[in-house]
Amino acid sequence: MPWRWPSAPMLLAQESMPASPALAVQPSPPAHVQQSAAPDPNELRITGLGGGSAQWTILVLLTVLTIIPSLLICMTPFARLLIVFHFLRQALGLQTTPSNQTLIGLSVIMTFFIMQPVGLVMYHDSVLPLQAGKITAMDAVVRAGVPMRQFMSHYVREKDAELFLEMAKEPRPANINDLSFRVLLPAYILSELKAGFQIGAVLFLPFLVVDMVVASITTSVGMMQLPPVVISTPLKLLLFLMVDGWHLLIGALMRSFN
After folding, report:
1. Other Cβ atoms closer than 10 A to 17
2. Over the chain, what is the mean pLDDT?
3. What is Dmax (Cα atoms) for the chain?
4. How far is the C-alpha of 30 from the C-alpha of 28, rounded, in Å?
5. CA distance linking residue 143 with residue 160, whole number of Å
6. Residues 6+ positions from 102 with CB-CB distance below 8 Å
7. At what angle do helices 181-220 and 137-153 cross, to 10 degrees?
8. What are the φ/ψ torsions at residue 98 (nearest 5 degrees)?
9. Integer Cα distance of 165 and 184 in angstroms
């Protein structure tokens, strides 16, 4: 059968028919529109705390993280506790038991227990307003220093404060709470060192008496081949356990900070 050209009415009917949905081609948006419409879930966004600049916020946070070990030693009871525990180990005649890691861990836990109320006040006064955007990072640091100043000024000796006031050539304040941190920090750590050595010396005395008694007995009976420390160390351990020494020591240290 010979092929025929389609007539005009057939061409008009084909043009008026709607296109199939499967064959319809929608215009694609530009590339930059597609990228901005769907954000990358792995994208990292850093915004400043308290409405401040992100760069300054990161600088302040990194600085605080760097000086945390120094703050732990100089602004908390950590130094006093660690000194007392080292004195106890020497008084018992034990060289490596408990280990340094154990003593440091025990000092950190006791420091956290003592400083928890102060940290709670700092959290409510500085961290929460900073997160809410009500204050800047520098204002939060100033607010956090108020409870720390009150804690340290309670244990600073007047003699040590006067020493550093004289060296700093600052006028004598009306109240010890008005001391600047330049004077308060060295005066506090000096007072803590003195308190730790005082407690350690008192703790050393009963064990020293045991050493002297054992040494005199072994010398009088002629036991020259056996060192007195071999006999006195078990006796000191038994004495320490009989009186529940850890309970008494930790209790006395915690009460010294009330």
Report:
1. 7
2. 77
3. 141
4. 7
5. 25
6. none
7. 40
8. -65, 155
9. 9
| CA atoms of 56 and 47, how far apart (whole Å) | 10
Summarize the confidence of residues 179-183 as an average pLDDT.
Answer: 83
The answer to whether the CB of 100 falls within 8 A of the CB of 107 is no
pLDDT for the residue 47: 52
Alpha-carbon distance 74 to 67, whole Å?
11
Q: How far apart are CA 95 and CA 31, in angstroms?
A: 71
What residue type is 51 in one-letter code? Answer: G
Spatial contact of 194 and 208, defined as CB atoms under 8 Å apart: no
pLDDT at 230 (0 to 100): 79
Would you say the C-alpha torsion 124, 126, 127, 133 has a positive or negative sign? Answer: positive
What the block records as the tokens of 95 is: 């060289």
pLDDT at 25 over 70: no
Q: What token pair was written down for 42?
A: 């792995």
Structure pTM? 0.68
- Per domain, the residue ranges of the chain are 49-90+99-199
DSSP the chain: ----PPPHHHHHHHHHSPPPTTT--PPPPPHHHHHHHS--TT------GGG--HHHHHHHHHHHHHHHHHHHHHSSTHHHHHHHHHHHHHHTT-SSSS-HHHHHHHHHHHHHHHHHHHHHHHIIIIIHHHHTTSS-HHHHHHHHHHHHHHHHHTT--HHHHHHHHHHHT-PPPSSGGG--HHHHHHHHHHHHHHHHHHHHHHHHHHHHHHHHHHHHHHHHTT--SS-HHHHHHHHHHHHHHHTTHHHHHHHHHHHTT-
What is the rounded CA–CA span in Å between residue 48 and residue 7? Answer: 73
